[in-house]
Structures are given as C-alpha cells and as structure tokens.
Amino acid sequence: MQDLNTEIRDIIAVIIEKKPEEITPDARFFEDLGVDSMMALEILAAIEKKYKISIPEEKLAQLTTLNQTIAVAKEYMSQTNG
C-alpha cells in the first residue's frame, strides 16, 4: 500500500504547496501544515477524482492527517471495488 500512501501524500503536497517529505503520517493538516477549509475541499476532490470514488462531505472532518486521509480513501475504495 506504499504507492497509495505516496500518491495521496503527493496530491496533498501539491494542493498545500509543501514538499511531500514535510507531510508526515501524523502531521495535523490544520495545526501543523496550515491547511484551510478550501484546501481540505480541494484535497477531497482530488482524491475522489484520482481514485474515481465518492466521499461524502461530512467525512471532511476526519481528514485531519495523512494517515486519516488514507484510511478514509481506502474505506471508500473498498466499497467501490466490492
């Protein structure tokens, strides 16, 4: 699953304009990385588009770290792929 982790980290890095290595698995997006709500929506939309999944907007509150974001993406990917 390393590829998924790297891909999602890279997506986030582009959107929040940081180097991928700055985004550690447990770095908090809002407190540590300066992510705002618009960036969070962009991250959600980019992940949905890349993996052809649909994540409800109420899940946005759970996208607080790289690990959490990956967990939510995996949850919806497994539902899509059956």
Give a verbal description of the structure:
22% of the residues are buried. The longest helix is centred in the last third of the chain and has 16 residues. By secondary structure, this protein is an all-alpha fold. Helix 1 crosses helix 4. The protein is 62% helix and 0% strand. The chain has one domain: ACP-like (Non-ribosomal Peptide Synthetase Peptidyl Carrier Protein, Chain A), CATH 1.10.1200.10. The chain has four helices and no strands.
Quick structural summary:
It is built from four helices and no strands. The chain is an all-alpha fold and 82 residues long.
Number of helices: 4
What's the helix-strand series? HHHH
Number of domains: 1
- Approximately how much helix is present in the residues? 55-70%
Furnish the topology, listing elements before pairings.
Blueprint lengths: L1 H15 L12 H5 L3 H15 L14 H16 L1
Helix pairs in contact: 1-3, 1-4
